[in-house]
Amino acid sequence: MKCVYHPDKDAVGSCGTCGAGVCDACKVMLAGKLYCQACADIAFAERASRPTPPPGPSLVQPSLLPRVQAPGAVTSLVLGIVGFMFWPLGLIFGPLAINYANQARDAIAANPMLDGSGMATAGYVLGIVDTIFGVLGLIWIIGMFTCTCATVPLW
Ligand SMILES: [Zn+2]
Ligand SMILES: [Zn+2]
User: For 92-106, what is the HEC assignment?
Assistant: First the structure.
């Protein structure tokens, strides 16, 4: 058998895919099998089009690792939102949200690998807003009662 690319050269083997004879210069070894150059190209292209397998552990970037939420970040945000939706509760939930947000921030400061700084910040801001709303709400309720009492005729 002669090489499919070099008719003057003897083939050292035949392609594992198409069976064409390949000489020593043309043969392509791929995963322990012999291929002609055309089939090797196709095999390479198929490999390249496949999603690349995840790199070894040493190549993994810290940012690619699943981020762990800092403890308190989610709680802070939830408390902040609940306190915002039910503003009279803001007096209780607001300071709690701030407290949890601070915990989350401390945890992130201690371990930069932790995620949730955005949530902690949102929880912190909501906590402040909740507290203000809660205080204003309380003043408003007291004011309303006071006004109602004052305007109710005594007779
Ligand atoms: Zn081939
Ligand atoms: Zn050849």
Answer: HHHHHHHHHHHHHHH
- Residue 134 belongs to a domain: yes
Residue-level pLDDT at 61: 52
pLDDT surpasses 90 at 98: yes
Number of domains the chain contains = 2
Q: Is residue 55 part of a domain?
A: no
Verify that 1 and 33 share a domain, yes or no: yes
Model pLDDT for residues 48-57, shown as the tens digit of each residue: 777 665 555 5
Please tell me the number of the ligand nearest to residue 10's CA: 2
How remote is the CA of residue 130 from the centroid of ligand 1, in Å? 71
What's the 30 CA to ligand 1 centre distance in angstroms? 12
| Cα separation, 98 vs 107, whole angstroms | 14
Q: Does 26 share its domain with 80?
A: no
